[in-house]
Amino acid sequence: MIEAQVSVLDQVDGSAQVTCGTTSVICSVTGPIEPKARQELPSQLALEVVVRPSKGVPNTREKLMEDQIRGVLTPVLVRYLYPRQLCQVCFQILESGEPEQEHSVKELNCCINAAYLALIDAGIALKSSFSSVCMAVLPQSSEIVVNPVTQQLQQSNSTHLVAIQVGQGGQKAESVLLAESNGSFDQQLFLDVLSTGEKECIKVALELRKIVENKIQKDFVWRG
Amino acid sequence: MGSLIIPGDELHINKDSSVIQGPGVYCEPKSQRFIPVNAGIEMITDSKKGQTVYVDFNSRRYVPALGDLVVGTISGSFSDSYRVSLANFSTPVTLSYMAFPNASKKNRPTLKVGDLVYARVSNAEKELEAEIECLDSTTGKDVGYGLLDGGFVVDISLAYARELLFNSEFPLLHIIAKYTQFEVAIGVNGKVWIKCDDAKSTLACYRSIVECQSTPVGEYKRLIAANFKEITNAME
Amino acid sequence: MASSIEIHPITFPPEVLARIAPDLSIQRHLSLGVRPCLRQFEEFRNIEISDGGLSRSTDLFHNSEENNILGSNVLRSGKTIVITSITGGFVEELLPVHGIDEGEEELRNMTMQHDRISQFGAVYPVVEVERGRMGAPTDEEMNLSQKIYNCILGSGVIPKSSLNVSVGRRTTNPDKSVSITYPDEEGPELDQQFLPKRKWSYVLYAKIQVFSRDGPLFELCWNSLIYALKNTKLPRAFVDEKTTDLKIPVRVRGRSAAIRETYDIICDSHKSIPLVLNSKNVGFASNFGVIDLDPEARLPEKEDEMQVDQEDSILLADLQGEAEESSVLSTLSIISDEKGNLKHLGIIGGGSKVTTETIRRSILLSSKRSEDLSTKN
């Protein structure tokens, strides 16, 4: 479901390349570094998120994605550990895997998971692990499809993204970090989506955990 | 060796005993709970005073901590202090003119911008600019800190740098020493300064240090031998 | 000689405390059961709306030739004023009015059905939050514009079909008088042959200006835009007979595509048709915040008073003011109609736990709010 490589870039502190289905993203994290004067926060870590699209120049679509990613990262970072410092998180979408004019859930999903691995790789303090999953609800059957393909995404009545904070050794969904739903749906469907999302997020978190375990083994290979 | 731990997991500490927290462990201000904030290996040692807990993790960005030995580059000088860079793009640290052995108002150190220094972190409050010193501040004596003349700096990961510095049994430098003479200064900020007599040994050392980062200890002998052999052959 | 230093506790008047420690100020207020704006926790602000008389059709001075605003709304909520004006243009579509052959048309319709969003039209919004200075749009403005665009497109308020232009024809009668006929008015009398073979559609732009920003804006902008769309009237358009008669061979493919019919499409200054919205997809937006109560920030209670059991997190409706915006980090934004059909739901976790109960409660409140808002006009 999710493929990832960690520490793919040389010049930054942490990086990860994540592929979910047809969507692929590379994420880099640099920090804590010295911020520009206008970014500096007196008591906490400032966060700069940059999203670059797979083709063309970034526009308001990417700005909105940056804002949503910031919404996910802000509560999980231990911000007060790094006062007056800056953390830069950059994303380069390699493969969009969805019609960019109409959707952004798949990219966003991939970005959030990539950000987790890159932050871990950079050693930035995190309060807990997190993961995300995207879903689409098909029109007739109201079936919730996890990680929809382009065709399902286009047919769907509504698209959803759920990112959650995972606690207790990756066993429990602690709280929702971001839920973003668009289209036509109702309360019951949303709650179903949310609980499916939580289950799937835990699965993703377990996969991410394995990737992190591999990374740590690789880091300390000289001990072995 | 402890177990693997990632953020969101529980630390395996005794609830009752007092806890001394190390890197990678954070005490949540609201709940006063200890949580791991980095992914690495959980290290717990029991002592009379209580439990010491830290997470041993690898990273590439150095954050100054009290007492660390570091290799820095002078990046600017002011009327009473130098500005020293310990990592690219990080907030620079201060090295006071008074933090040298035998320093006085008249006796100024003669470091230039671009020089390398070996120093110890003397003050590292996260809210303040960190400070480093080139003397043992308790005795005021010279203990080997100061200008690193010539040589070459190798950038390595932080966990590897700590291992090189603190584990005197670690075979890397011992094996290299069989092939060449060298001076070395290891900074836990991920910078190793190395000075050999000639360029080819420097190159072999550089390669060996970098490559051993991703090699199990058992293969060090073979790898280092190959590096030195290759360099010597290439020269001829 | 040792001198003693006396430490005086510092006290601040409420308005100063609210400025320097918004967090503490809001906690104190909430522990008393009231918000800084003196509303109840789940109370919304009233909104006042009007069309502002800005658009062509309601223009008091009847100079609709010069006015290019097709629909408008002025929304007032608290001290915040949102002015939405909708303008438009035509775009020529690549495809002709009728498909080249039926098979192709069928194929297109089939793919359309498979792609939900492509059945809907959109508005291209530009949000401007006035701060008394010029400059590049801020991140907030860009995010708002994009979010509104996404929601308009995703909710399917505007069916693409209602943006199609049914083009009329201007004829000069033998007695030199000019008359304009539209295909849907005159019936079969108008010869299909003389109608232009090109297809146009309306494209709508919305300029949303915000004055006196006081809290989150998405919901206000969205509601204002929906009201404006509801009273939007699209001007009818026609081409001159002389140009429809021209029989220039049209070749779409190849380099000769540059030689085309050059129709002059002209807006009718008198006639207009209302923009048809997909009424079942129209929803109104409301926002909520979740904040955890900090027991330590409560005012010290008197000894004899019973400790009142309060929930540790509370739901606030319709966030307002600097204090609420900066200290309430968990927010929900919901677009829903009065029946509880949702078009958009966004949760930003932000630190507090958003429970299923909270979500249920806010969806309920938001559909009630929507019921209230939909009666206004």
UniProtKB/TrEMBL annotation, chain A:
Any GO BP annotation = nuclear mRNA surveillance
UniProt keyword NAD present: no
Q: Where is the Exoribonuclease phosphorolytic domain?
A: 2-124
Enumerate the GO terms in the molecular function aspect. Answer: RNA binding
Is the keyword rRNA processing in the record?
A: yes
The main location is nucleus
The record's keywords, sorted A to Z, are: Exosome, Nucleus, rRNA processing
Q: Give the UniProt subcellular location, in the record's own words.
A: Nucleus
Q: Name one Pfam family in it.
A: RNase_PH
Q: Which domain of life is it from?
A: Eukaryota
Q: Which InterPro entries match?
A: ExoRNase_PH_dom1, ExoRNase_PH_dom2_sf, PNPase/RNase_PH_dom_sf, Ribosomal_Su5_D2-typ_SF, RNase_PH
Entry GO CC: cytoplasmic exosome (RNase complex); nuclear exosome (RNase complex); nucleolus
Q: Which family does it belong to?
A: Belongs to the RNase PH family.
What is the protein name for this chain?
A: LAFE_0E08966g1_1
* Native source species: Lachancea fermentati (Zygosaccharomyces fermentati)
Automatic annotation (TrEMBL), chain B:
Compartments in which it is found = Nucleus
Instruction: Supply the source organism's classification.
Output: Eukaryota, Fungi, Dikarya, Ascomycota, Saccharomycotina
Q: Name one GO cellular component term.
A: cytoplasmic exosome (RNase complex)
CDD domains under this entry?
KH-I_Rrp40
Q: What is this protein called?
A: LAFE_0G18712g1_1
Q: Which organism is it from?
A: Lachancea fermentati (Zygosaccharomyces fermentati)
**Under the GO molecular function aspect, what terms does this record hold?**
RNA binding
Which UniProt key words apply to this protein?
Cytoplasm, Exosome, RNA-binding
GO BP terms, alphabetized: CUT catabolic process; exonucleolytic trimming to generate mature 3'-end of 5.8S rRNA from tricistronic rRNA transcript (SSU-rRNA, 5.8S rRNA, LSU-rRNA); nuclear polyadenylation-dependent rRNA catabolic process; poly(A)-dependent snoRNA 3'-end processing; TRAMP-dependent tRNA surveillance pathway; U4 snRNA 3'-end processing
Residue ranges annotated for the K Homology domain, each copy included: 151-199
Query: Gene3D superfamilies under this entry?
Result: 2.40.50.100, K Homology domain, type 1, Nucleic acid-binding proteins
Keyword Phosphoprotein annotated: no
InterPro entries in alphabetical order: Exosome_RNA_bind1/RRP40/RRP4, KH_dom_type_1, KH_dom_type_1_sf, NA-bd_OB-fold, RRP40_KH-I, Rrp40_N_euk
Do the record's keywords include RNA-binding? Answer: yes
| Domain Exosome complex exonuclease Rrp40 N-terminal intervals | 22-61
From TrEMBL, chain C:
Gene Ontology cellular component list: cytoplasmic exosome (RNase complex); nuclear exosome (RNase complex); nucleolus
Q: Which residues form a coiled coil?
A: none
UniProt record similarity statement: Belongs to the RNase PH family.
Supply the Gene3D superfamilies for this chain: GHMP Kinase, N-terminal domain (3.30.230.70)
List the molecular function annotations (GO) for this entry.
Answer: mRNA 3'-UTR AU-rich region binding
Q: Where is the Exoribonuclease phosphorolytic domain?
A: 43-235
From which source organism is this entry? Lachancea fermentati
Q: What is this protein called?
A: Ribosomal RNA-processing protein 43
**Which superkingdom?**
Eukaryota
**Which Pfam family name is an example for this entry?**
RNase_PH
Task: Name the keywords, alphabetized.
Answer: Cytoplasm, Exosome, Nucleus, RNA-binding, rRNA processing
**Which terms does the UniProt entry file under GO BP?**
exonucleolytic trimming to generate mature 3'-end of 5.8S rRNA from tricistronic rRNA transcript (SSU-rRNA, 5.8S rRNA, LSU-rRNA); nuclear mRNA surveillance; nuclear polyadenylation-dependent rRNA catabolic process; rRNA catabolic process; TRAMP-dependent tRNA surveillance pathway; U1 snRNA 3'-end processing; U4 snRNA 3'-end processing; U5 snRNA 3'-end processing
Which InterPro entries does the record match to this protein? ExoRNase_PH_dom1 (IPR001247), Exosome_comp_Rrp42_subfam (IPR050590), PNPase/RNase_PH_dom_sf (IPR027408), Ribosomal_Su5_D2-typ_SF (IPR020568)
- Cell compartments where the protein resides: Cytoplasm; Nucleus, Nucleolus
| Keyword rRNA processing (UniProt) | yes
